[in-house]
Amino acid sequence: MANHVVVVGYGRAGPNIVDIMGELGIPYLVIDSRIHRIERLSKKKASRHFWETPRIPMF
To answer: Fewest 10 Å CB contacts: which of 1, 6, 10, 18?
Structure first.
């Protein structure tokens, strides 16, 4: 994974960043904890990773 941009989170800004990276030909890896966001990337043939995060109660 040398010379890749790592995009952590594919929420609001993630799709824009990924589009720009694709237009510029810059390889990238997207990491997100929501599987539906990662599934959207399959059409772009992007490097992607899903991780399960622990649920921490908020006070």
So the answer is: 1
CB atoms within 10 A of CB 3: 6
Query: How far is residue 10's CA from residue 33's CA, in Å, rounded to a whole number?
Result: 9
Considering only CA atoms, which of 13, 8, 18 is closest in space to residue 49?
A: 8
CA atoms within 13 A on the CB side of 42: 7
Predicted pLDDT at 20? 92
- Give the integer Cα–Cα distance in Å for 30 and 50: 9
Mark out the alpha helices in the chain (DSSP H runs): 14-24, 35-40
